[in-house]
Amino acid sequence: MSKTPEGDRSSGPWWWQRRRSAVLDIGLALLAGLECAFGAYGVVHDRLHLGVPAGAVAAALGVLAGLSLVVRRRWPAVPVLAAMVFVPGLFGVVLLVVSLYTLAATWEWPSRRLRVVLLSALAMVETFGMALFVLSVPAEPASAEPLPPYWVFVLIAAVMAVGLVVAPVATGLYVGARRRLIESLKDRAHGLETELDLLAERARERARRARLEERTRIAREMHDVVAHRVSLMVVHAAALERIIPKDPARAQESAKLVGDVGRQALDELREILGVLRMSETVEQPGPAADPADTLAELPRLVDQSRAAGMAVTLTVRGDRLPYAPEAERTAYRVVQEGLTNAHKHAGGAAVAVVLAYVPNGVRVVVVNERAARGAVGVVLPSGGNGLVGMRERVLALGGSFVAGPDGDGGFRVEAVLPSRLAVQRDRLVP
């Protein structure tokens, strides 16, 4: 069955895709039928002198042959075979030309090229032979005028065969190839459109994830500022209530520390809010790490907790080795979070902070003992996100993180950051 590249079949009857295609085929069939009918009647009645009944039968067959163009889009070989029947009479030109054009244009190429070539070659040979026979054999046997050379008849017959066979076949091949190319381009355009829609959907999903990650990062920054700084302020405020009547000098020192911690919290909040107000059209880095949030500032962090009444010790092991800013800030935040948890959940318990520069990286540990009996802690709200955020930060840098109860009833927070984050290692890379 032929493949017709005419569009969709929603508006045409039977095998036609469009109504105007049906009108065109019926019109061509009527024209070809009239030509074949008159040609067949003239051959049978005028040349063969077989009488009117035989001429009428021949005319009826000619009409049927011409009407075969109605099915040219469904069965393109049928009108070609019908036209070859009338080629010896040198009529049915419309039927021959249209059927050969349809054969070349509508059949799949090159999957059916053999059939197209064979039928076209057969039609050309028959047309050439019949034209040569009619031209070389005079209508009247006796003629005084000399005949031209035989090669003239051959040339004229060849031109007629080319015009009646090669021209419509070549035109049909061109039109069919053009239609198939347009169809393939449409299919490719549709595929590209679908792919673009998919890429746009993926881009929207990536943008959504990026916004979610940015919100998560900002939430971590806010947690670092609020959880630790404000926790220290609440602890110192509670201590002030107890020591003002007994030790005014210490109370004054605690009040000053509360002010310093509050100012630090405000500075960090302003920094984060400033980043949030930046124009979205300019790509900006995240909040810059506070120069004070480094491992070298851990003694200051521990002193703040001591000033709040916590029994905390700091142990540093190994040779000091500078690490990348994000690594030092993450380790600092781990210690900060461990001390904040001790303030919240282990009031009066001793806390040990260990900073160790080991061969495989830097290790920070915060361990608090079991809360002392009868100790009255400060009630602080807890969202449960601090340790989760610390774990995500450490794992993002390729380190390891452990947090949970230890064997003595206390709580342990430990993180190890890999040695590849050391600044000296980075400088060795060319």
From TrEMBL:
It catalyses: ATP + protein L-histidine = ADP + protein N-phospho-L-histidine. InterPro entries: HATPase_C_sf, Sensor_HK_TwoCompSys, Sig_transdc_His_kin_sub3_dim/P. Its EC number is 2.7.13.3. SUPFAM superfamilies: ATPase domain of HSP90 chaperone/DNA topoisomerase II/histidine kinase (SSF55874). Residues 214-278 form the Signal transduction histidine kinase subgroup 3 dimerisation and phosphoacceptor domain. Keywords: ATP-binding, Kinase, Membrane, Nucleotide-binding, Phosphoprotein, Transferase, Transmembrane, Transmembrane helix, Two-component regulatory system. GO terms for molecular function: kinase activity. It holds the Pfam family HisKA_3. The chain crosses the membrane at residues 22-43, 50-71, 77-104, 116-138, 150-176. CDD domains: HATPase_UhpB-NarQ-NarX-like (cd16917). This is histidine kinase. It comes from Kitasatospora terrestris.
